[in-house]
Structures are given as structure tokens and as C-alpha cells.
Amino acid sequence: MTFLRKISNFLPDIPKLRYGIYCGTNTKKELLILLSYFFKILFGVKEKQNLIKKFEHQFSKKSKSKYSFTYGSGRMALYSILKTMSIKKGDQVILPAFTCTVVPNAIIYAGARPIYVDIEPKNFNIDVNLIEKKITNKTIAIYVQHTFGISCDMKKINKIAKKHKLKIIEDKAHVFDLKNKQNKNTYASYYSLDHSKIMNTHLGGVATTNNFQVYQKLKKLNKSLFTIGKIGQLRMLLSFILEIIIFNPYLLWMGKPIFLILNYFNILFYFNDELKITKPKYYPCKYSNFLSLVGVNQLKIIEKNISHRVKVSQYLEKKIKWYSLKKNKVSKYSWLRYSFLVKDQEMFIKLFEKKFNLDIWYSSIFEGRSRNYKEIKYKNGSCPVAEYVSKHIVNFPTHIQIPLNTYQKIIKENWNWLRNQINYDKRNSLMLSGEK
Fold first, then answer.
1. Mean pLDDT, all residues of the chain
2. 2 pLDDT above the threshold of 80
3. pTM greater than 0.90
4. Helices 230-246 and 289-300: crossing angle, nearest 10°?
């Protein structure tokens, strides 16, 4: 990014309606909850109830899991799951080479080595046909990421895991499945609740399991979680309150530069550990009571939330046809974003940034890291499909703040340009090369 481009990010846009990816599921009720709790913490009013336990119980019911534990973030939930596995030096975890950098970070923090597998260009999930080639006598688990809310082929993964006696860890940061039962062969799953996900409590994560032994180990580990202090809690609250306000579609034109300035001066609270190769002292930490209140409300509207995402994605799939899914098949997934490949990623962003602040995922093979891949044990060129995808992928947000008719209008206005940009030929050639 050029110096002038960096400076321009700090300048407000022309006042207009514009959609982002953050806080798309939050409500006015949640804003009032947060404002009330801000003053409670400020004046030292102690909460009598253990709101976290209530949220964990309700999360278990909605996610069809027996046991749930909350954490400061999804990555910390993953780390805690890994710590229950008695990892020895040299142990390996297989994962897709198209993910957030915090995923291999957590694996490395836990003492294991990430082993990367290339992805399928049609759904951006791990290429199941390549998994067995990476299994060794040091492999202990397969990490399954349901990218953008599209489920992996769990039948094949279950078969591979059973054959090689491997544990399955499911990354559900992009998905919330209301229709299907938990996979009986999964060791544990985790969800992310950060500000861009299907359920948003600004920060947070949940580990779930149906395995009683895993539950006992997680319960024991939870006793030693780090606690964020009062100042950190206030900053976290202030960050969430400001985000809900400034990321509103009517204010986003000036909200993004305000956000960048506040973040630059370290006023806002986030876990900025993407490039840390050693585990931070606060990691893993506890979830917060006030976030649980928002979480409970998010669970109440989860059906409405996902229903809207499905409707948007049904329309986009009917037009774009990237996934080659019929209408009834689209409804099987929760659709964090609708993603596809284009010939010119930069031109796509320039065209659609008039209506959207897109923040494309993953424009780097490891979101949050664009260099020094050796630090997370990745060898450049080893997963060519994922590397190509990161340079050509684009995605539309699907959250409830964006009306379906907005997409209908935008796609209609830009369809002549867009249909010539969608990179079906490259998708098909990459699929064929992966089958060889």
C-alpha cells in the first residue's frame, strides 16, 4: 500500500449509505446493555449473577453440544482444546493453508507443528483428497475449517481420521449450524464471536464438546485463565459501543477513519497477537460478563440472522453460480460471506467500495500476516491453489444490515462488468490440477 493510500484511509468519505462487515448483527438493545454496563464497571458496581454460565448453557442448547466453555477469543478456545491433547514435541496438526494466522499461532503455542494442506477452489475448504499424503506417524489431529460458512466433506474426513486414529478439531468460526447434529467423531469444536462473525460480541470464543473427558480437561484448564483488569474491561466496552455506532451503514463514511485513528492511538481494545510467535502473557483469558449479556441476545436472533444470510446467498448464487448449488442446497449453510474468484481483485474492490467496506478475506494466504511465513512453518509455493486464491478472491458480506434488494440493485447495475470478471475458467483448471 502506498503512503498516499495509507493517508487516504484516515480521511472521511463523502456522506452516503455504505455497508461494512463489522457489527452487522448487533441491535439497539445490545447498545443499551453495553452503555449500562460501562457505568457499572466505571463506578465499581459488582454483578451478582454469573452471566457467563447462563450464556454457556444457552450456547450448548443452540449449538447442540453437551458442554461449552467461553474464552477471550476463538483462538484461545482453540489453544485450550489443543492443551487437552497432551501434545508432545514433534506432534503435528493438519490444517488448510488458507486461514487466519492466529490458527497456526495457537498450534505452535500449544507445542505442535502445523502441517498445511492445499484447498479446493470451488468452496475454499481443505482439499480432502490431499490430506492422507500429509499424514505421518507424528500426526495427532486434523483441523477442519468450514470456510465462510460452507461445510467441509465430513464423511470423508471422518473416514480418514478413523483409519489413522486421529482427532478431529472443527473450526466453526465462520459457521453456526442450526439444522444438523454435532459430528459424533469430533474431539472438540470452537466458535469465534468477534465483530465480523455470525454471532458478534466484539471479542470472544467458545469451545464445545460432547466428550466428557475433554469437558473435564477444559474445566480444569479454565481455572487458570487470565483475567482482564478494570481498565482493559472499560476499553473493551468502549470499543464495542463505538463500533456499533460508527459502523452503522449511515455513519460508516466517517466511521472507518475514526476507527483507524482511535486504534492508532491504542484507545480501542483488541488482542493484537497476529504476528507474535511466542504466546502472550494474557493468553488464554476469560470471557467477560457484559459480553455474555450481548451473547444471550445474539442467540435469541440467530435464526433470523442466518435466514437473512441464506436469502442473500441464494440470490447471489443464482446469479454468480460459483458453488454450483441449487436453492435448497444453499439453505444448508450459514454463509458468513459469499465468496468467489475474479480476474482483477483490485478493480473489483474499486468498483464495489462505493457501496461496501469489503475488507476482503483472505487477501493473504494467512489473514493477519503477509510476510515471514517461515515463522509459522509454511513453505512458499507448497500450496499453490491457496496462494492463487488469496490474490483473486472477493467476498460480499451477508449480514442482516444489508437488505436483499440492495444486492439485487447493485448486482443488476454492475452485472455486465461482473459476469466477465468471474473467474470460472481458472476455478475449473485448478480443480482439474488438484484431481491429478
1. 93
2. no
3. yes
4. 30
* Structural domain count of the chain: 1
Please enumerate in sequence order all residues whose Cβ is within 8 A of that of 321, keeping only pairs 6 or more positions apart, or say none.
none
HSE of 5, CA atoms in CB hemisphere, 13 A: 3
The pLDDT tens digits for 302-349 are 999 999 999 999 999 999 999 999 989 999 999 999 999 999 999 999
Best CA proximity match to 85, nearest among 28, 169, 175, 6: 169
In a domain, 187, yes or no: no
The HSE-up count of residue 424 (CA atoms within 13 Å, CB side) is 8
Domain-located, residue 92: no
Check if the beta carbon of residue 85 is closer than 8 Å to that of residue 134.
no
Q: What is the CATH number of the domain that holds 357?
A: 3.90.1150.10
CB atoms under 10 Å from CB of 305, counted, come to 23
Residue-level length of the chain: 436
pLDDT digits (tens, 9 = 90+) for 11-57: 667 778 999 999 999 999 999 999 998 888 888 777 666 899 999 99
Any domain includes 144: no
Q: pLDDT tens-digit profile of 206-218?
A: 999 999 999 999 9
Report which residue type is found at 144.
Answer: V
Domain region containing 350: 302-435
- Close Cβ partners of 264 (under 8 Å, ≥ 6 residues apart): none
> Is residue 389, in this structure, part of any structural domain at all?
yes
Q: Which residues pair with 84 in a beta bridge?
A: none
